[in-house]
Amino acid sequence: MHTPINLDPQKEAIVNIETNRTLGKIRRLHGSNLAPYIGAQKIPSMDISEDLRSLDIPLTRLHDAPLNGCGMRLIDIHQIFPLFHLNHNDSRNYYFDHTDDYIANCLATGTKINYRLGESIEHSLKQYFVHPPHDYEKWAEICCNIIAHYNEGWSNGFHHNIEYWTIWEEPNTVPFLWTGTWGDYIQLYVLTAKKIKHRFPMVKVGGPAMYGLGENQITEFLMECKRQQAPLDFFTWTMYANNPDPFIQQPEIARRILSKYGFENTELHLAEWHYIDPGWVNQREQTREKRLVFAKTMTGINSAACVTATLSGLQDTPITMANHYAGTAFDLFGLFDGVTYAPNKNYFAMKAFNLMTKYENRIEVKSEAGDNIWVLAGRKVTGETAILISCFKTKKREIVINFGNYKFNPDQCNVSVIDIGHDLTPMEHVKITGNAITLEKPAGSAVFLMEIMK
Q1: 41 phi and psi, to 5 degrees?
Q2: Where in the chain is the domain with CATH 2.60.40.1180?
Q3: What local confidence, expressed as pLDDT, does residue 2 receive?
Q4: Is residue 297 classed as helix, strand or coil in its secondary structure?
Q5: Which pTM does this prediction carry?
Q6: Per-residue model confidence as pLDDT tens digits over 151-203
Q7: Disulfide-capable partner of 98 in 72, 84, 163, 268 (CB 3.0 to 4.6 Å)?
Q8: 332-342 burial, b if ≥16 CB within 10 A, otherwise e?
Q9: Where do the H-state alpha helices sit in 19-173?
Q10: 30-357, superfamily in CATH?
């Protein structure tokens, strides 16, 4: 629980673990975007499947898959049904092969899927596929046939029982993801959502996967959904920020707006999020030299600390899922290096949080650590305890973790750290005095995972 208190940075940061007070379960919010690349499975050094399996990702969104697919025809509507003028009820006019294998790869990592129905972003000089469909009814029926292929076996398909289906992506990011108006998108959403829900009542349909939370646009969207009785099982938005606070604050904003219009039970999904260096304003205006600097920050320790801090802070919000962008070796955004496919610091941050979720019973924390330090504590039913401490751009400090009357064997205490020189590896110097553990944290960002065995 993050309690911002302004303290002298030279003093100790105090964290009191209330071991006898529980706060429910630690929620597995660490969703992701994109699946392992199907074109690299015969090259062991490029196959990230096992690495992703170890993260236990609860939900993976499939957006921008062709951009990470090196020529594969994946996910997007025009990739699966390329000739829009053909008969959409004739299975011969669909191409599912690449997407079939891609989804199989995704499911093999142990995750569930949120399938984005729409198109990938286009940073090209002109837009090719992100236009409003010529025929909304037909487009919606194509979406239904895709769902039927993956959930009902249509066209030599499958019974994957994919639950989440998102209609389009960032329709307010004009023209890179949508060339129509906001009203055009709402019309497409309402028609498609109603058609999907009528044909597949057990799936969940949602949108608008908008960038940010523009209240006027959300209001217009919600009012039309309500007027036309269009389903909205989950509400989605995307966000990039240079510190954890905006990610943590936005779910309350979204819940307030949705509740105002009668959508109190609609799930909230932060569909894309990633740390962005404050010096990065617009990638289309950056030089190559600045992009190189930016690339290092996107996969470095500040980003890693932002990951664990955000996932810790979101525990106290009405969020349902937060899908980090992205879970592959994808440009500057992935969990893996784009050349070596080695895990980067964002990967180890996700791994630290996943390990923390194994200590599923959340323990209350009273923190006097100050701003930019987030603490999450939990315990297994068998008694083992863990604490995840996320320090985002903090000064040099000692962090003292007090355990009150909780007795533990110092030899059974393991502390791992993510910082500039460590990738969730053992910390060399840990001071244990009585029921208190002291960590010496240098200036900058760092993540500590403390595990106390029985």
Answers
A1: -70, -20
A2: 13-25+360-452
A3: 34
A4: helix
A5: 0.94
A6: 999 999 999 999 999 999 999 999 999 999 999 999 999 999 999 999 999 99
A7: 72
A8: bbbbbebeebe
A9: 49-53, 77-80, 97-108, 136-151
A10: Glycosidases (3.20.20.80)
